[in-house]
Amino acid sequence: MARSTQDSRASGADLSLTSVTKRFGGFTAVDDLDLLVERGQFFALLGPSGCGKTTTLRMVAGLEEPTAGRIDLGGKDITRLRPYKRPVNTVFQNYALFPHLNTFDNVAFGLRRRGVRDVKNQVQEMLDLVELSTYGERRPTQLSGGQQQRVALARALINRPQVLLLDEPLGALDLKLRRQMQIELKRIQTEVGITFVHVTHDQEEAMTMADTIAVMNHGVIEQIGGPMELYDNPATTFVSNFLGQSNLVAGQVLGRTGDELVVEVEGSKLGVPVDRARQTSGRVWVGVRPEKVFLVSGGTSTDEGANVLGEARVIDVSFIGVSTQYLVRMPWGQELTVFEQNTGARERFGVGDSVDLHWTPAHTFALDASQDARAGDERYEGGLATAGVGT
Amino acid sequence: MSVADVGETLEGRTGKPPRKRARRSGWSTGYLLLLPGLLWLLVFFVAPTIQLAATSLYDSAGSLEAGYAMTWSFGNYLDALSTYREQFVRSLIYATTATGLALLLGYPLAYAIAFKAGRFKNLMLMLVIAPFFTSFLVRTLAWKSILADNGAVVETLKSVGILAPDGRLLATSVAVITGLTYNFLPFMVLPLYASLEKIDPRLLEAGKDLYANGFTAFRKITVPLSMPGVVAGTLLTFIPAAGDYINSELLGTPRQYMIGNVIDNTFLVQLNYPIAAACSVVLMVVVVVMVLLYVRRAGTEDLV
Ligand SMILES: Nc1ncnc2c1ncn2[C@@H]1O[C@H](COP(=O)(O)OP(=O)(O)OP(=O)(O)O)[C@@H](O)[C@H]1O
Ligand SMILES: [Mg+2]
After folding, report:
1. Bridge partners of A272?
2. Do A264 and A192 fall into the same domain?
3. Domain encompassing residue B296
4. A52 CA distance to ligand 1 middle (Å)
5. What is the pTM of this model?
6. Residue B262 confidence (pLDDT)
7. ipTM of the complex, rounded to two decimals
C-alpha cells in the first residue's frame, strides 16, 4: 500500500510522506506515518478530533518540522524547506484572513510576494471563480462565514500550488451551506486540476468529495482507499465503525471451502469471502453493514447459502422515512442494527417480534479479533449510552 | 428617567416585543451614563479652555492687582509668537525627536514582550511600569546624576572618543531629549504592546504560507496590524513631551528651554497672564492640528 514510496514516486505521486513522526514533548501526535497522494487527486484525510490531521498538514506546509521522516513533493525532498519556499498553500481551519486587507488584497497577497505581474486580472478571475467578483472592496469582517471561506480558498488557490491543503475549511458552516460548498469545492478542484488534500472529521464529506480517503486514528493511518473500498471492505474495526456503522460479532474460523471461510458464530456457520477476511484463522470479528441485512420472521426458511443468525428479538424500531432502523437483541445478549429500505415490499416488524437476520456471504467481512470492536463507534466514543441507533 | 418611563408605557400599550423595549431603555441609559463624563468635561475642560482663550485676549498692559481689561488684543499672539518663536520650534523638534526615539526603542521592546517573553511577560510589563512608582521629578533628577560631567556615562563616552575631552552631556539638547524619551517611553510601549499582543500568530503563519519570509511578514502583517498601537503610542508620547518643561529645566539650560518653560515663567514669574495664555493656546492649536494631520495620514480606520 503506502510502503512502496520509491515506486510510486516514479509513477507520478505528487506528495509523499515517509515514516513521518511528530512529537510534542512526550506526546506523539503523528506516528510513523506513510502517505502517498497522486497528482490531481482529491485526497481526504479523515479522522476524529485530535488524531493528528492538522499536525500532518502543517508538516506538509512547513509550519511544523517533523521529528523524524521525510516529505517529498514532486520528487523533491522538502522536509526542511521553509514554508514560504514551498509550492504548497493552505486554507486554514479558521481561514486566517488578513483583517487589515480587503478581499482583493487578501487574494492578491501571494501573487505580490512572488512579484507576479498582472495581479489585477488574475485576482478578478479568481474572485469570479469563487463567485465573489463584487466583494473585492470588503474587509473580512464584512463577509459572511461562507464568503470568508471562499476568500480563503481563492487566496490559496490563486497561487496554483502543486498541492492545496484544506484544513476542515467547511467546519464552521451550517449543514446546508456546507453541502453547497462541498459541491463547489469539488467543481473547482476538477476545473483547476490541482491536487487537494482535504482534512475533515466528517465521514460523509470525505466520501462524497474524495477520490481517495486516508482514515487516521491516534496519529496513524488505519486504511487508505477509495470511498467504496473503505466502506465495503474495511481493514480495521475503527474504519468499520467510523465510516458508517457495522455489526461486529465474535467468531471462530472453522475452515475453508473454496473461496469462502467458514466461521462459527454462537452455533451458526457463516461464510466470509477469503479476500474480504483480514485474518483467516483463529478468532475473528465477523462484520456486516446494517443495510445489507434482511429481517424475516423467526424460523422462515431462507436462500441456500445465505448467512443466517436466528432467534433475535426486535427491541427498538425507528421509522425515518426512506428506511426503518431496527435494533435487535441476539440470544447471546448483543444488540445489532438492521436498516430496511421502505420499499413497501418488505414485511414490517414491531418491538418484541421474533426475527432472523440473513444476508449474502459476499457482504460479510472478517477482522482481526485482537481489536476493540467498539473503536471508532461514536455511540461509545461520544459517551452516549448503548441504547438507540438514532445517529 | 422620565423619558424611559414614558417610552415604557407607550410600548406597553402598543404591545411591542420586549426585546425592542430593552433596546430602547438601553439607548437612553447610554446617554445617562455619558452625563457625569460630560459634566466633568464641561467644568474641568471646556470652562477653563474658554477662560484661557479669553485671558489670551486681555490687554497685556494690565496686572493681577489692577485687573485686566478685555480689549480683544489679538496682538498678544503676535507678541508671543515673535518673542518665543525659538522655544516653540524647539519644543516641536524635541518632542518629535523624543517620540521617534521612543518608537525606535519601544517597538522592539513591546514586540519582545508580546511574542518572545514567554513566562517573563508579566515581569517585563511590570518593569516597564515600575518607574511610575517614583515621581517624575525624582526620575528626572536621577538622570541629572547619570549624565553628570564626571559620571560613568560621560567618562565612558570620552574614553571611546564619542565625546570630546571637554564635552559634556548635561545642559545639552541631548540630555533634554534623552530625558523626554525616557520619561515618556512607557506611554509608547504599553499601547504598542496591547496592539501587538492582539495579533493572531496564525496570521503570520498564513503569511509564510503565502510566500512572505519573516521580514516581509513583519512588514506586511505585523506592522499594519500594530498601527493603532503606533498611533496611540506616538500621540501619548508627543503631546505631553511637547508641553513638558521639567526635563529642559533640570537637564538643560535656558538655551534648551521649551515652550513649557516659557509658559511657566510668564505665568508664575512675570505674571503676564495674557501672553502666557496666548502661548498656551498656540501650543494647544499647533498640537491639535499636527495630531489631526497625523491621524489622517496614518489611516486610523481601525482606531475607531
Ligand atoms: N503545539 C502543540 N503542542 C502540544 N500538543 C499539540 C500541539 N499541536 C497539537 N498537539 C496535539 O497533537 C494532537 C493532534 O492535534 P491536531 O491539531 O493535529 O488534531 P486534529 O486531528 O487536527 O484535530 P481536530 O479535528 O480537532 O482539528 C492533539 O492531541 C493535540 O493536543
Ligand atoms: Mg485540526
Report:
1. A261
2. no
3. 85-303
4. 5
5. 0.81
6. 95
7. 0.81
